Amino acid sequence: MGPETLAQVLRPLTGIFLPKDHPDLLVGLDISDDAAVFKISDDLALIQTLDFFTPIVDDPYDYGAIAAANSMSDVYAMGGEVMLALNICGFPCGLEPAMITEILRGGAEKVQEAGGVIAGGHTVDDREPKYGLSVLGRVHPERFWTKAAARPGDLLVLTKPLGVGIISTAAKADAADRAHVAGAVESMKKLNRKAARLLMETGIRAATDITGFALLGHGSEMAEKSGVRLRFALERLPFLAGAREYAGDWLFPGGAGRNRKCYGSGVDFAPGVPEEMRELLFTPETSGGLLAAIPPARIERAQELFAAAGQPFWIVGEVAEGAGIEVGM
User: Where does 33-139 sit in CATH, by number?
Assistant: First the structure.
């Protein structure tokens, strides 16, 4: 569902669940962040999220692992740890049981890697395969991150390269190099757990993960909720091998146009930014990295931590006063 339609259908629900009636719901519909956060005690809050989608790769194991990593990503975007998960499954009646087993095995091993456990799930018959997770995480009620805490002067960092969306689309059209597809699959399967832990140790305030609304969509939400302007430098943005090539061939999915229609009015591009790169920054990502705002006094500490852990880390822009997004060269 596109961002405009989603906002429209959710709007009536905000009048049903009023914040004053649910004081322990720290993040809910009225705030609309990456996941819900519910306070249990003075030192424990639960994070709840779910996600599922149709296959974006051919291999069933990889599909399950990617879907699971993507589902758990919102817990990490809030600064939490995964506790348990439930499978969400929709499979055609004629799908080979062995393929379903591989999908579920891919998801299960990814949850195990996250330190969580799968405790059950639900299946329905569907014409097209769908798989994902409902995920429960934990965080301290005073230490979770939101999209609304970026401040002018903060530096913007990204923990995974961009481009899995356009590479996946090129692969569906049999127009992608196998090496490029393999790189995209590995990126999507990688958990954001280590990056989140390092950012927590750094001491950040604001973060989100880059998924279906693309860098500029999720960045726009952070800018709006924080009341700031995000400035990205195109030359600093990391891209997977092949992404720029397929952008030049204009192999974009339909979601890129939907994201641009919804968020484009709030984005200012420098004259030198090529049209295909503008569209690429609106292209949906799957299981993308974390976009975080780090106070300048802590950026050196962050660089040391990420370097010591061998974890990728790119400074891609800064937070300024104002509103919206700015993309320069």
Answer: 3.30.1330.10
> Where along the chain do its domains lie?
33-139, 155-328
Mean pLDDT confidence for 53-61:
96
Instruction: State phi, psi for 180 to the nearest 5 degrees.
Output: -65, -40
Beta carbons of 316 and 215 less than 8 angstroms apart: no
- Report how far residue 325's alpha carbon sits from residue 329's, in angstroms, rounded to the nearest whole number: 13
- Phi first, then psi: what are they for 291, rounded to 5°? -105, 120
Instruction: Report the distance separating Cα 259 and Cα 288, nearest Å.
Output: 16
Tokens of 131: 């798989």
Q: In the CATH hierarchy, which top-level class contains the domain 155-328?
A: alpha beta
**What integer is the mean pLDDT of 270-281?**
97
Alpha-carbon gap, residue 45 to 13, rounded angstroms: 23
Alpha-helical segments (H) within 227-270: 243-248, 254-263
Question: Is residue 217 within 8 Å of 267, Cβ to Cβ?
Answer: no
Q: Sorting pLDDT into bands at 50, 70 and 90, what band is 29?
A: confident
